[in-house]
Amino acid sequence: MFDYQFFIEVLVGGLLSGVMYSLVAIGFVLIYKTSGVLNFAQGAMLLFAALTFVSLVERGVPFWLALSATLVIMVVLGITVERTVLRPLVNQSPMTLFMATLGLSYIIEGAAQLLWGTQVHGLDLGIDDVPFEVGGVLISQFDLFAAAIAGTLVTTFALFFRYTRTGLAFRAVADDQFAALAVGLRLPRVWAAVWTAAGIVALVAGLLWGARLGVQFSLSLVVLKALPVLVLGGFDSVAGAIVGGLLIGAIEKLAEVYVGPLFGGGIVAWAAYVVALGFLLVRPSGLFGQKLVERV
Amino acid sequence: MRLSRSLRAAALAAAIAVGTVLPGHADEQFFPLQSYRVGPYAAGGTGFFGGFIDYLNLINIRDGGVNGVKLTWEEGETQYEVERGVEVYERLKSHTGVAAWNPLSVGIAYAMIDRITKDKVPLITVNHGRTDSTDGRVFPYVFPLLLNPYSETSGIVNYVASREGGADKLKGKKIVVLYHGSPYGKETIPIYKLLADKYGFSLEQIEVPHPGNEQQSQWLSIRRAKPDYVVLRGWGVMNPVALKTAQKVGFPVDHIIGNVWSNSEEDVIPAGDAAKGYVAITTQASGAEYPVLQEVIKTVYGAGKGNLEDKKRIGSVYHNLGIVNGILNVEAIRIAQQKFGKRTLTGDEVRWGFEHLQLDPARVEALGAKGLFHSINVTWDNHEGDGRVTFQQWEGTKWKVVSDWIAPDWAFLRPIIEKSAAAYAAEHNIKIRTSDDPPVSQ
Q1: In degrees, to the nearest 5, what angle opens at C-alpha A220 toward C-alphas A48 and B244?
Q2: Where is pLDDT greater, at A122 or B25?
Q3: Other CB atoms closer than 10 Å to residue B435's CB: what's the count?
Q4: ipTM score assigned to the predicted complex
């Protein structure tokens, strides 16, 4: 007999895991939307942020001061990347820009280990991961906390982009870079703002993922979780990142539990990519992505 | 002139730092080290290779080498990647007096088996590697010292039996093995099945794909299966995530038994409170209270030549594994010197030393390692050496030993190992050695 309670437990767990994927995906979307760059260094930025924060805390810096200092460092990092890597490569092909961010990811990873060492660290945000039960279904307090943080972050960005001048400029650039330039918007300034925002997202995601995995090198691998989310939701849609994350989280967990045994288990890593690939064939721009129309 | 002098001083300092001397030096025994100090597994690499180098330094500083033969080494960074490991092998294999290779990597070790067999230099895979390489008749140059994966499995089952009140109490129990989705993780699938049949416990083996940073569905399945114990056969980030996710689904942490690559501080510290009470197997106890560790602190770190940047890591699981690995390598050279002379030995002569590496508890105590590890008894056809295991429990800040030294069921395992080795020999057209073969290759 089908165990509905277990099904719901897996589904809820998957949706909450998906929120964590969305957090990483949002960082990609922000940069892709305005500059067309798929920033493969987002995972390395996440590692750098978490490692910086936890290293400061372990050296006796108070929590909020460490958070503020890390935020400043991430802003500086974002602006530096834009100035030194992306600005000189403006008008280069998307593949060139992608390769630049790939190289950047190795540099940031190396710099993080050089600065803060190679040891793994625990990160306690003060939120217990002890579950509570609702109708026989276990729900993680930490996952709910992460969902609330993600919700707050998205709301903040939505308000910022809707009601501020920088946000308006961001939307204009995202809509049409050449038109934005034509009306006098300073593209580099917008890109710097976007890289700063991506740095902030990296910090938030880094702290949440770091609290879950421990702060260690493999944090940078969480980018692999974001890629199918982006394919499903669309590379240029924050809403798509949220919905895509939830869908991928739920699908991969349900697939592992109900389909996995047919293949000997261990399908959670590639099940998400199967779904993403299938979706790519049907709807290449993703659920919420803009359809690309090119004049030839 | 000043610049030239500075450059020479820097070059000399670099040479001392890597422990190298010029090729052709008469009395040196060289260890090429395929270490990993950056990348995802750097925490384990710095601990293990740090401990190994600390012990080699102790022998050089305290004793002037092994019977006057200086121990030297050079590190090549692999980042735990197989191709880089092979590159380092090709670069360093021509050095004078190569004693043995110690890559601490299953992938690199597998890629080296044919090469080291051809070059006639021992390959040490302490606590890991191919189980059937225990059979020295087929793998003359490979040494999975102290513990091969099958012995580890048997040791874990024996420990669970001891907690339940005897092997007969295992009947009807349920054990889930949560394994890393890699050749390493899958190596023990058959032996768990055989042991389940032997003792009558039910078994479920669940894979976690690499790297293992998401395990929600696996642990929900475990929760539904309601096992008595979960064996964690993990690696890297998979371990703390398993402990955290176990807490999320309410599985008791003291019923999770970690394998030998899930037993370090790096595996539990990131999991925070979720790891308190977790139990893991080990071949070497942690802690710095053992005389050999005290000597390392006094002699090596006292001289400013300690390899660990963070002295708090002295006595950690990986550091102590490196120390024990150093003891085993050095003693193999010492034993080989008794037969072949107190000089630089060939790799094949050192191989002979490993094949006579018999350290009983009295000798282990004389080496200052009583309680650090139990004993080893390597022979020409048993390259593991019947290492004993013990179990440690994480208390939140340190490990505490919670069992006696436990012997795996070697009599049960040996025929399985021989069968697998014989199949390998047939497949690779290898002539099986006998005790009548000469001590070293002619």
Answers
A1: 100
A2: A122
A3: 8
A4: 0.86
Ranges assigned E (strand) in chain A: 131-134, 137-140
Beta carbons within 8 Å of A237's beta carbon, 6+ residues apart = A29, A33, A286, A287, A288, A289, A290
CB A25 within 8 A of CB A18: no
Long-range CB contacts (within 8 A, 24+) of B218-221: B218/A256, B218/A268, B218/B178, B218/B245, B219/B245, B219/B246, B219/B248, B219/B249, B219/B251, B220/A6, B220/A9, B220/A10, B220/A13, B220/A253, B220/A257, B220/B249, B221/A256, B221/A257
**Which tens digit of pLDDT belongs to each residue from B35-79?**
999 887 888 999 999 999 999 999 999 999 999 999 999 999 999
Residues 6+ apart with CB under 8 A from B198: B412
* Residue pair A24/A222 in contact by the 8 Å Cβ criterion: yes
User: Minimal Cα distance from A119: which residue of B?
Assistant: B43
Chain A, residues 112-141, CB within 8 A of chain B, namely 113, 117-124, 129-131, 138, 140
Bridge pairing between strands B142-143 and B123-124: parallel
CA distances from B349 to A37, A191, B138 (A): 58, 64, 18
How far is Cα B257 from Cα A228, in angstroms, rounded to an integer? Answer: 34
Structural domain spans, chain A: 18-220
Counted residue by residue, chain B has a size of 442
What residue spans of B120-253 are helical by DSSP H?
149-164, 183-186, 189-199, 216-225, 238-248
Same fold, B2-147+286-377+418-427 and B149-282+392-408: yes
Task: Sort residue A122 into left (φ over 0), alpha (ψ -120 to 50) or beta.
Answer: beta
Q: Do B221 and A120 touch (CB under 8 A)?
A: no
Alpha carbons within 13 A on the beta-carbon side of B230: 30
* Beta-ladder partners of B34: B76
Token pair 């897996």 is at which residue? A10
**Three-state DSSP state, B376:** strand
Tokens, residue A295: 């004049």
Q: Half-sphere exposure of A154 toward its Cβ, with a 13 Å CA cutoff?
A: 21
CATH of domain B2-147+286-377+418-427: 3.40.50.2300
pTM to 2 decimal places: 0.88
Confidence of residue B26 (pLDDT cuts 50, 70, 90): low
Residues of A whose CB is below 8 A from B223: 138
Residues on chain B touching A260 (C-beta within 8 angstroms): 217
Q: Residues 6 or more apart from B393 whose CB is under 8 A from it?
A: B254, B277, B278, B279, B399, B400, B402
Report the CATH superfamily, name and number, of domain B149-282+392-408.
Response regulator (3.40.50.2300)
Residues of chain A contacting residue B237, judged by C-beta atoms under 8 Å apart: 213-214, 216, 218, 221
> Any idea how long chain A is?
296
For B3-13, what is each residue's pLDDT tens digit?
444 444 444 44
Tokens of B324: 């024990």
The answer to whether the CB of B423 falls within 8 A of the CB of B410 is no
